[in-house]
Fold:
Amino acid sequence: MHFPVVSQHQPLKKIQLSGFAQGTSWHITYYAEDSIVRKKSIDSIFSVLDRAMSIYKPYSLISKFNCAKKDIVLDDHFEKVITKSLEVWKASDGLFDITVMPLVDAWGFGAKKVSRYPDSAKVKSLLRCVGSGKLELKNHRLIKYTPCISIDVNGIAQGYSVDVIAGFLEDRQIMNYLVEVGGEIRIKGRKQPGNEKMKIGIEAPGDYTIEMPVMQKIITPDSGGITTSGNYRQYHESNGKKFSHNIDPFTGYPIQNELISVTVYAADAMTADAYDNVLMAMGLVKGMQFVEGRKDLAAYFIYKKNDGSIADTASTGFMQLTK
Structure:
């Protein structure tokens, strides 16, 4: 005699968590039979990551490295971020460089405010302490070959944090989720129980919203990382001119080009987070060529035209995500 098989599975519920970490807010939406992941677990993940990579914590590994004369031993998290940073440094011909920290500080984008900006002599002297070629990762140790080298992984660490949390959810068999930290996103699966695609909205930068309400894109990827870099988020103004937190590691000066923001889609948030900085630094033409030459990246650019009007464009891969 055969009996009908009765499913023991309960319908998946929508569970939402939120909090504050890494100087910003975070939000998680996941779908599960019960609230199997709690806020305190997420808070403890952030605490572990901060102990490795927060330049604002004097006891962190990154702070110890910046004070060290030669090297330190890395934990697994820090090693993964450094490995990726050096990989992107090579792929970007040196445009992505975690050693620009002395310049970031000098231009007032670091932990301390500055009363005046550096002159050309100061910039030139600081450039001696810049260059990822002066770093080596060997046997879980990060070595500096110039003692004044200091690093800042802010351009990649938040994306990595998103990936770590996504991995934590997947380890608990959660396969439908959205993780967001400071606007950097990792997504997988669909809304439950209706199985609808999750929608990610890319809004016009704050300063330009009134001028360009149509510049909002909705994408519906099944999985992956989506991050944005923009000069409207962190900038200073001097003599009526804005300059961004993106520092050119070759000249030592803030990068100025027509780009307002770049949103990048990649398989994971750490990759997207690193390359949104690269593309912002490259500018529109070179950035688009770079993305179109890679199968693992897609990008959406918002930029200012010569006549001052705002426009947008997207790579071929990114256009596929809007369908």
